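Researcher: Please generate the 3D structure of the following complex. Treat every line as part of one assembly.
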Amino acid sequence: MSTEAIAPPRPGPPLRALLRPVVGPLVAIVIATLVGAALVAALGQNPIEVYSTLIEGGIVGWPNLSVALQMTTPLIFTGLAVAVSFHAGLWNIGAEGQMLVGALAAGIVGYAVPLPPVLHVPACLIAAAFGGLLWASVPALLRVYLNVNELVICLMMNPIALLATGFVATHALKAPGPTNKLPDILDSAVLPNFSLFSQLNAGIFIALACCVAVAIVNAMTVRGFEWRIMGLSPRFAYYGGVNVRRNAVAVMLISGAIAGLGGAEQVLGVYKAFYDNFSPGYGFDGIAVAMLANSNPIGVLFAAFLFGALSAGSGVLQMMTGVSKYLVQVLQFIIVLVLAAQFSFAWLFGRKPAKPSARVSVARSVEERTGTEKVG
Amino acid sequence: MISEIAFSAIRISTPLIFAALGGLLTFQAGILNIALDGFMIVAAFASIGVAFATESLLLGVLAGVASSMVLAALLALFNLRFRAHIFIAGIAVTFMAYGLTALLLKGVLNEEGVFSSDRIPTFAPIDIPVIRDIPVIGALISGHTLLVYIAYLCVPVVAWCLYRTRWGLRVRVVGEAEDAAAAAGVNVERLKFETMLLSGLFCGLAGAYLSLGYVSLFAKQMTNERGLIALAAIFFAKGNPYWTAAVALLFGTATALSIRLPQLTGLAPQLLQLIPYVVTVLSLIIVGIRNTRARHRHGVWRFEI
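Model: Done. Output below.
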């Protein structure tokens, strides 16, 4: 998303101002729904039936809802991690790797360090946050001090994390038995589960707390203000006296730590051990969540719940009909694609859209669009 | 034993080289195309689907290439026309492609994870008459299938197009200095669109090779991040076709070793699979240090590379 996407709100009727941030996501959801319906129809299924199964399987009844909330929890963490970085104009797409490393750290502390219950869970969480932070420090430091594109580094750090944690889980610290996992965590490290129907656990409260904390920091502190300015225009922030480098490192590290906590929730709450390759791509789903939430920490909650419910519903969908659960993944990334495009919704507000050929903005947007210049 | 590994390294590197050539063209034009995996998976699916339906390899490969190019056009449309950030659009396209192929795998071919069938024809290995008889090299080079040879022959062709034609010069100028190219009257958007379509073409061949070239099989997410490895090769070689192909071959060899060595030595396969990514990160660090030293240091942090 370029800086142009986040135009400062202009004075206008309050209803319009309220509606504006919601319009883009809603349009994207509608487009994705229509494309998905066409796909389903092309596969010879009834779209209405499929969608109603999806919604029913996602949220109707406590068993389904608790599965949806269980799926929502990791998405809140990764979505928030990505959102924090997007908000400050940085592109942390390495949440997947940071989450895996955090999960590994939590898994190791969870089984290897005997502690009383009151201390054990916090110790695991701190270890996980530190693991994610460590993994994020590579792209962060390279970005800030060597001017290396953090997107490419993040992209490469994801498989490195997967393979490295895989090595630990399959060789270095493998639990005895056929499964590639670490030994089970001790009972003192388990996050309490409060649903019979799913692995929904106390981690969701940690996720909520993180969202609220980020929202408060963004809205009420100088730091949050500085991050927002950096996201809008790093150059302006620099001339305005913001220490852009230090703040950028801080944002990336915080982002990594949040992703790492997401890994801890999975290990301590859901799996009760670190399993090799446990994540079905939560880190990448986090990008979708952050895009849909427009990098707003409270918006992340809603976006994560939408995708979590869809993903819970997709399991039911696959059982009940012949449609694969991957329908949801398609919908999810159509939404991302549409949101990434800078369609102008200005006509909705009775203004003429800006001409895309305005020469002034071309040079700058070219830099942004191409993502990188050649290295070296 | 060693020649066997070398033979399979050449084979395993084939999709990497195709994908790297595809990514390289957009890289030269200043777009970092991270949707190589997405293009490949769609092509792999379309290839095997059509080859299954028509029992024709040619139609299968053509379908793969066509579908991959359609996806490339979609990405180019969103990037160039709707100004979507290339990385976000690329990730979206890739994961959409993963999801779509898994969805269609279930919906059309009615399989959950893996599809394969006896009806699908296979490529015949080609014995090259003279080369076959050269002692060591002959056994390595001869006896591959058609697409393998096409991949390696495409390398000089791409290099020639980039460095010896007017079109290639324009592509490189667009990559180096877009504004200068635009000022000189080059249609930048069109050129980028063309490189993206060619990227789709090469990834289409890569995908077709994945599903039809060696074993006739489609598995969901079967590209196994080959696009990312190809991208790593491009970065490491700074976009030069020959070097990129050489690095891709190197990474392919590492992959071949990671399949064979653990059986012999008990070494963890992950450690060898790590090589392409770690090497890329290290090379980016070195390039970064060099650039930072070389650049006259302004106070302003260049936020927009």
